[in-house]
Amino acid sequence: MLNAFVQKLRGLVDLDAATIVRVETATTNPRLFRAKQDLIREGDMTGPVFVMLRGWACRYKILPNGSRQVTAFMMPGDACDLHMSLVTAMDHSIQTISAAEIAIISRRDMDVLIDEHPDFARAMDIAQLIDEATLRAWIVSMGRRSSLERISHLMCELYLRASEIGLTDGKRLTLPLTQLILADALGMTPVHINRVLKELRQLGAMDLQRGFLVIDDPDTLVRISGFDENYLHRRSASGLLGVRASN
Amino acid sequence: MLNAFVQKLRGLVDLDAATIVRVETATTNPRLFRAKQDLIREGDMTGPVFVMLRGWACRYKILPNGSRQVTAFMMPGDACDLHMSLVTAMDHSIQTISAAEIAIISRRDMDVLIDEHPDFARAMDIAQLIDEATLRAWIVSMGRRSSLERISHLMCELYLRASEIGLTDGKRLTLPLTQLILADALGMTPVHINRVLKELRQLGAMDLQRGFLVIDDPDTLVRISGFDENYLHRRSASGLLGVRASN
DNA sequence: CGCTGGATTGACTCGGATCAAGTCGAGTGG
DNA sequence: CCACTCGACTTGATCCGAGTCAATCCAGCG
CB 3.0-4.6 Å disulfide test: which of A55, B133, B185, B208 passes with B231? Predict the structure, then answer.
């Protein structure tokens, strides 16, 4: 059984056996974190590379007035700050959302890995490209989509990303996001998140409950959000619309 | 006189003379573009690397309903899509805002440049890191800042980035952004952009007119927007607050 | 069994969108 | 030199999606 990191990378490029072993080895002995723990904070010196193996985390920034904006969700398989050590200080914080297992790879080890395994390096570059595309997709959502569209779009994204690493089970996904975190991510208030989730439930599109998400009607969700998966640059074809077919 | 690209890179790392010459050479003979021309469109095959030498451009996405969201502004010195060729298709479009001179470097030439000049490679990595941080800053703006704060924040960012490559003249910056493009970038309507610009003018903070921006009171602008330049990871110290001191 | 963090619901407010007229300025052609 | 045009900018009146404020509910847990 390959770990989530390897599984994600293999979704991006073909890795030879030797590379897989090396990457597996580098990510054994993950550190355990409880929920809501900062891995690193804005202003901290940049450090090693974090690789999520289990659980969820998020990047966020705090504004002068105390409000918070989440800028990315990280799930198993996601790595962060590959090149971050090229600059001196973090410009944002990273925090676990749920309990998590996170491998910590030193700058030095990562450099060796990249040097000796060009395919791995390429996979990391592609992963960064996708992260960037995802940031752009979020900007589009915040700028031009209604709250209903925005939530739908995010859920499509998370579901699809999660399905890449086998986190989904049919139309179901374990998703430990509270309405408060969702509000911080989508630029809305928890109250309004609640109302929109209710609306999506009543539309029969999806149901987000404590700890998990159920996609009841992928078609509707895609139609509402105008979701186009092209920015995730997936190699495999199976998409959101395939969810229903596979059931 | 070094071109804008070299000037930007030198703001990120120290480049030796040989590297500078090579980069200069690679960016001679730029292509000329008129305003509002697409360099590449969403869905197109990924291609060469574009390097802005003069004029402005933007990345954008069009939504199903026809509305548009700009996700980044590109000014002289900015390069785009260094690693984009690792994926097959563009997930967004790029368009000139003003007339522009843009060097086009083939994938092959770029690979050679990166291979033979590690400092150049490092500068490009840092540039990408900053681009990513800028995307996050935009998300924060769209999610948690009022329209007044949002415009102020963007103007701080653009002024500071422009000053890095010597585009500013005291408190003045040539900036060919229409209120319509600004609206598409900030997730607002042109009408409201107009009103907020008027307010900023009346506050004596800044004045955006046809084709140029004047920062009248950097302090106020920074205070309104809560601008923190840390995400731009500049090496030089001179900031927005230095504008006034230098006058 | 009460405490706590999240979820839910209702009443009211408000920032920014929408709709609808203008105005201004740089071409451009007669 | 002036009329015409077109794109961008302005301004006012009105509307509405989402925020704010304030209870209340609910489940897990020490």
Answer: B133
- The DSSP bridge partners found for residue B209 are B212
Laid out side by side, the sheet with A93-96 consists of A38-40, A93-96, A57-62, A68-74
Residues B175, B121 share a domain: no
Q: What is the CA radius of gyration of chain A?
A: 18
pTM of the model: 0.96
Measured between CB atoms, which of B59, B126, B187 is closest to A86? B126
Which tokens hold the place of B170? 């005291």
Interface of A with B in 87-146 (CB under 8 A): 87-89, 91-92, 122, 125-126, 128-129, 131-133, 135-140, 142-145
Predicted confidence band of residue A242 (pLDDT cuts 50, 70, 90): low
C-alpha span between A209 and A214 (Å, rounded): 8
In this structure, what CATH number is given to the domain that contains residue A156? Answer: 1.10.10.10
Smallest Cα–Cα separation from A69: which of B152, B133, B145, B153?
Answer: B145
* Cross-strand bridge partners of residue B72: B59
Q: Is A42 on the interface with B (CB under 8 A)?
A: yes
A-B contacts at Cβ under 8 angstroms: 123
Which of A83, A140, A185 is closest, CB to CB, to B71? A140
Specify if B139 maps to a domain: no
For residues A124 and A150, membership in a common domain is answered with no
Please give the Cα distance from B145 to B147 (Å, whole number).
Answer: 7
Q: What percent of chain A has pLDDT over 70?
A: 96
Rounded to whole angstroms, the distance from the CA of residue A179 to the C1' of nucleotide D23 is 19
* Mean confidence (pLDDT) of chain A: 94
Same domain? For A228 and A174 the reply is: yes
User: Confidence band (pLDDT; 50, 70, 90) for A111?
Assistant: very high
* Residue A63 contacts B, CB cutoff 8 Å: yes
